[in-house]
C-alpha cells in the first residue's frame, strides 16, 4: 500500500486491495472512505467487497462514487459528513488518491490557508496548485463573503503538455528541451518513482539489485518542465485541454500522450493472489523480480514453467530471457539435469523476427527446454501448484490442459490503460491513434503519441522510445512553428535477449521485421550470441537510459528528416488547432 498521511486523522492512497483491509486495521486505522466508482477499472474490487471485509475487520466504511475529473459540491458535502461520522485515523482512496486529497482540500479550505493546503498536499505527492482560486473562494465564502467557489478553468496554454512520466514522456520532454531550451512544457504524472523496467530481467537473474532499477521521479524529471503530480481523467482535444482527476483543466498548444501499457494480472484466474508464494513469480513486477531469483537459486529439481500471453506485451523477448537466465544458473550449478523446463506461449513462433530464431533455438536445445506453442495461461492455483492452459490446435479447436509446477514465471496479459478506453484520442481498443511513421495523431494535428500506449505496430520496448522521442520532438516543433520539417520513425525496436550470463542475442529490427542494427556486424553480429552485447546490456544500457535518453542526448538516435511529406497543421493561430487527418 502507498499510504500518504495528510493529517493525524486522515491519510489517502491509491486503490487498495482486498488483502490490504486487514493490514489497515493492524496499522491503527478505524475507517475507510472509498471515493471511487465501481467498474472504473478492470479487476478493481467492488464497493460491496471492500465493505464486507471492512466490517469483518471492524472498520467503518463509506462509499462516495466520485467521477474522475467531475467532483461536485454534493461529493464534497458527502466527504465532510463521512469524516465527521468516523473516529480517525481514516484512509480515503481512489485510483491514485487525487480525488481523495482534493475532497479533503475542499473541506479544509474553511479553516486552513490555501498555501498550507497546497503545501500539505505537495508533501504527500499531490499537486493542487491549480485549485488555488477555488480554495481561496471557499475560504472567503466560509468567512461570510458572498463569493461562490471558482469553477475549474484552464490557465494560459502550455506550449506542450505531456501525459505520462514513464520512458516515453520523459524522453520526449528531454528531446524537446534539447532542441528548444525554455520551451513551456508540463508533464502530468502522479507517481513519485520512475523505474528502469528493462533491468528487472537482470534482477530476476541475480545480476542487478532491485534498487538499481528505480529513481525518484524528481531526479529524472527534465530540468525546466512543470511537473503536475496528478492523474488524467479525460482528454478534450477539440478544446486543446486535458482534465485532471481533481477537475482542473490543463491547456496546451501541442499534446504528447505517453500513457503506457497496463499489466492485466486479473486476466489469469488466481494469479494476483498466487504471486510471491508457492513458486509463482514474475519479472514484470518490481516487487516480484527478487523472488524470481530466490526461486531459481533454491530449485534443485521438478518442473519450471515460463509463460508468454498473446501480443501485445512489453518486450516480447522478456518471458524467454527469464527462462534462459534461470537455465544458465541451473546448468552451471548442475541442477538442470533434474529440472523439466517448459516454455508455454500463446503464439505460434518462438520470436517474431525469423532471423533471430536459429540462435535462440540453439539455446532452447542446449537447455533441453520444451516448447509449447499456442498455449495460453488462463489460471494459476498457487497452493496446489497447478497451471491451466487453453491449447489451440491446427484446426482452431481449443482444449484445456493442466500442468503442475514447482516454479512458474508468468508474463501477464497486457493492454491499454482503462482511462484511455473510449478516449477522444484513442482507437477502438484504447491505444493512442497515431500515424506509424510520424507518430502524429490521425485526427488531431497537434496531438502526438509515444511509447507503449500507441497503436503503431512496433515492438513495445524502451529502445523504441529512444528512436521515437527525437521524431516526436521534431514534429511537435514543426507543428508549433508551422514548418514542414517532418521526421520519420521506421519502427525501430530492440530486444537484448539474455541467453546466458555473459552473452546476449541483440535483436534490433523495425517495421516488417527489417533488421536495423546499430553497430556494424564485425563489432556485434545481432543474430548470434555475443559477449559484447552482454556488456552493452549490463553496463551501458542503464547509463544510456538514465544519463542520455532521459536527458535529451540522442547518441545514434537522430531522426531522419524529409521535406516532401509535411505534417498537417491546419491551425487558425498559435493556440487554435482544428481537427486534421494525417496524410
Set down the secondary structure blueprint:
Elements: E1 4-7, E2 10-13, H1 20-26, E3 31-34, H2 47-56, E4 60-63, H3 73-85, E5 90-93, H4 98-108, H5 114-123, H6 132-142, E6 158-163, H7 167-179, E7 185-188, E8 193-195, H8 200-204, E9 214-216, H9 217-220, E10 226-228, E11 232-236, E12 241-244, E13 249-257, E14 262-263, H10 271-274, E15 280-281, H11 289-298, E16 302-308, H12 318-333, E17 339-345, H13 357-367, E18 370-372, E19 375-381, E20 386-392, E21 398-404, E22 407-409, E23 414-415, E24 447-449, H14 462-481, E25 486-488, E26 493-500, E27 503-509, E28 529-530, H15 531-548, E29 560-562, E30 571-573, E31 576-577
Helix pairs in contact: 3-4, 7-14
Q: What does this 3D model show about the protein?
A:
With 583 residues, the protein is of the alpha/beta class. The chain folds into three domains: 4-142, Protein tyrosine phosphatase superfamily (Protein-Tyrosine Phosphatase, Chain A); 158-261 and 416-577, FAD/NAD(P)-binding domain; 264-413, FAD/NAD(P)-binding domain (3-Layer(bba) Sandwich), CATH 3.50.50.60. Helices cover 28% and strands 23% of the residues. Strands 6, 7, 10, 11, 12, 13 and 24 form a seven-stranded mixed sheet that branches. It has a five-stranded mixed sheet with strand order 1-2-5-3-4, with helices on both faces. Strand 26 (493-500) and strand 27 (503-509) form a beta hairpin.
